[in-house]
Amino acid sequence: MEVEKYIASGILELYVAGLLTEEENLEVHENATQHIEIKEEILAIEAAIRELTQAVAPIYQKRKGFDDIKVRIGERKESKVIQLPKEKKSNLSTYIGWAAAVIFGAGLGWFYVQNDQLKSEIEIVNEQNEVLEQQIFEARGSLTNTEELLSSLRDKDVSVISLGGQEVSPDSYAKVYWNKEQKKVLIDAQGLPEPPDGMVYQVWSLKMDPLTPTSMGLLEDFASDDNKVFTLNNPNESEAFGITLEPDGGSEGPTMEQLYTLGAVSSS
């Protein structure tokens, strides 16, 4: 049970005002027994209402109460001129004062609850607006990146090499968009499965005779990249491209048992 939220809910003010059901009263009583903070809050509310009552009740009523105490301890004899109707009227004023204080306290508690709820709703709306603004910003950025990507792929100097799945993962595939003039490649790795923890895909430029692999780089942050398109430098005279699964940080040479895709430049 979150005591602070329970206290802030306003139910304790309603409990003191006597506006709860019998079942709710029992629940508040049990919670006050189990949590000293709730009990102290109830006592504080009751004390506040007593102060309000004293402020609302007529001043002469206080004087009358003091005179009654004097009579009871023998310091003053009760005056015969005090009439019963006036006493009843005075008691009625007291009851009205108590009732007004209780209603005021309950209303004050309700106001605080509503105010807290309004603040919470405003905070939620502000958070939603921030999220929406961020989504719009990201969408605009994504559109810009997409346009740049399409422009790169449509360049007349770009060669497209398809990489097919190998024994370790026959269903895998990838594409290499190689711009020889700019000495760059775009790797479309959408067809590769997400690498396990502690592993990373590494891209190789291959010379076939003799077989000479040269690392072009890693496909880092693979899981968090939505487009699965990676840009790498390739100053090599590549005859083929391959992608292997290597430990984090990459390897000096390809692990052929973990060769996921392979494709020759001449076959594109």
Topology:
Blueprint: H1 3-8, H2 11-17, H3 22-34, H4 36-56, H5 59-72, H6 84-153, E1 158-165, E2 173-179, E3 184-188, E4 199-208, E5 211-219, E6 229-233, E7 240-247, E8 259-264
Antiparallel strand pairs: 1-2, 1-8, 2-3, 3-6, 4-5, 4-7, 7-8
Helix pairs in contact: 2-4, 2-6, 3-4, 4-6
> How far from one another are the termini?
66 Å
Main beta-sheet strand count, sense and barrel state: 8 strands, antiparallel
| Unreliable parts | 59-66, 68-90
Mean pLDDT: 76
Global geometry: rod-shaped
**Order of strands across the main sheet:** 5-4-7-8-1-2-3-6
Briefly note the structural class of the backbone.
Answer: alpha+beta
Name some characteristics of this structure:
268 residues, alpha+beta, Immunoglobulin-like, 2 domains, 6 helices, 49% helix
